[in-house]
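>> Question from a student workshop board

For tomorrow's exercise we were told to take the sequence and the ligand below, predict the bound structure, and bring the output to class. My setup keeps failing. Could a helper post the expected result so I can at least see what it should look like? The ligand is pyridoxal-5'-phosphate.
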Amino acid sequence: MTFPSLRDDLGTLEGYHSPQVDVPVRLNTNESPYPPPEAFVHAFAEAVASVPYHRYPDRAARSLRAALADFLGQPAERILCANGSNEILQAVLLAYGGTGRRAAVFQPGYLLHSHIARITGTSVVVGEREADFSLDPAAATALVTEHRPDVTFVCTPNNPTGTVERRESLEAILDAAPGLVVVDEAYGEFAPWSALELVADDRPLVVVRTFSKVWSLAAVRLGFCVAPPRVVADLEGVLLPYHLSVPTQLAGRLALGFRSEMEARVKTIVSERDRVGAGIAAVEGTTVWPSGANFILFRPAGDGHQVWQALLDRGVLVRDFSRMPGLEGCLRVTVGTPDENDAFLSALQEATKEAVAP
Ligand SMILES: *Cc1c(COP(=O)(O)O)cnc(C)c1O
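>> Workshop helper replied:
Here is what the output should look like for this input. Compare the format with yours to find the bug.
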């Protein structure tokens, strides 16, 4: 008996990991530190109790789409929902990538874009960000003009750097890109502007968003995109039938009724972000980058991985990017509750002293 061997082109792929360690202060995956409002949890539980479970869900998720359309002030035909925004990214690459096709990404950036590209057999073209992690419009347009990618990914605010792209840079890429431009706005609610305002029926632009972050629903797995209706139709064609469960659709629809609570969470997290950023900057020898998201990239004094370990020893888990090209020595911390942030800041003080001790 023999097992089939893994596809040759997948042999060298490493999975996408963020270690899930059980510690008191988990600030490594950019989730909301707050659960959704209690009234949402009750409404959801009640709705789930009376679902006709022997029937398939609404395949087109019409009422969720209509609710999102209303929420965003966009036509429902431009909206597509999926199991997390990652499933949207996968659908984009299934529809427009694949063998003989190319996707462009800018690094340092979100690793899942190139990871899903490789899984779908799409070649990846890599552009570099500037020293401040912004995109240089001239370099970015030169890249897409030379390589003619079928899909160009731009993450803004960029994970893991927190960088918010300038509108002019995005417009320059849109003008030059020969294929689809996908703007990943997983952290869009925290940023001062959104590419949603650039979506138009005649422009090959897709803006991707998620309920995993500020909506406090990472456990549900719900994301969506806003795109021209013809793109939405192409993406629907590659998704599995009935992919979006009834509870998922219900969760999204009910969550949208808690807009003011969501906006309040954004405000709290943004003000904590600014406080934590100032706190990190005050730690001797530390570099910190401005962030338009709910996390902060910083480079501690001393060896980055050693500081990561010293934080973990104190019960604080952050994300270790210290060995990633372009991010040498860097760590990323998610903004948590004020107590979690205080615990992180005091652990960072101690960990840094330990790391730079002679
Ligand atoms: C967290 C994150 C997502 C969200 O993925 P989901 O599948 O919606 O949970 C997407 N893009 C980026 C850049 C992220 O950081």
